[in-house]
What does this fold into?
Amino acid sequence: MRAMIEDSHWLPQPPALAPALLGFVTEQGSLTERLLATGHRFAVQPLYQGAATVHPDEALLLGIPPGSTLYARQVLLTLDDTPVVYARSIARLDCPVWQPILDRGSRSLGFTLFGGLPQLQRAPLHYRQLDSSHPLYPASAAQADSLSARRCRFVLDDAPMVVCEVFLPALKDFAR
It folds into this structure.
């Protein structure tokens, strides 16, 4: 598998965060399972699914030209109806491998990625602090100076898919 393609803003080490939050941001397994382990009611709230424009720092990860159209799934992960993570999963438009997997409504993608696809290849996590200039910042609808984010590239049957998760300020209220 190819190494994670990164730009100079996505780094292999996480930002400095409080230990309880750092555990969520650096979780190597399923973030869904980590959120379920809090004991609070977990849900996936779909925001959008369909054609979208690739963000400038995503194009290389999918091997498509900047400005291209891709397939995106955007959701909020909630605990007790409070949004704690904004997630954007992207694949090439009309990808026969990922589109059926991403077309899951309010079901968690994490259960599939971390248990249902033994042939799945996963690159290392990369991290970034997002400010208001990054396209994922306004999409998250959060009010903060900056937001911690991570992303990971997955490959299944030679088809790439990227999951980016933005950690919202309310997560600190549920972190232990």
